[in-house]
Specification:
Elements: E1 11-14, E2 18-25, E3 30-35, H1 45-59, H2 62-71
């Protein structure tokens, strides 16, 4: 990991076309601005993790859920043990 020190108004360049600028400093927060081409996705880490989880969930085909139910079906009401 590259660690840099910047002041308000100073920037960091990533490649030829991404610029990260320190806009504001508070006690425990840094406000940054990111200028990047539209083809580059920019997300906060927690948002990116949610996107990954949603994509993984969407990638499971409905058929797989149906097959799982056939292989290990939940007991039907008539198969449950009766009380005596």
């Amino acid at each position: 990991m590259l660690v840099l020190t910047r002041r308000v108004g100073e920037s960091i360049l990533i490649g030829d076309d991404i610029v990260v600028t320190v806009l504001e400093l508070n006690r425990d927060q840094v406000r940054i601005g990111i200028r990047a081409p539209r083809s580059v996705s920019v997300h906060r880490e927690e948002v990116y993790q949610e996107i990954l989880m949603s994509n993984r969930a969407a990638a499971v085909p409905d058929d797989a859920l149906a097959v799982a139910a056939v292989v290990d079906p939940a007991p039907s009401f008539s198969q449950l043990p009766r009380r005596r």
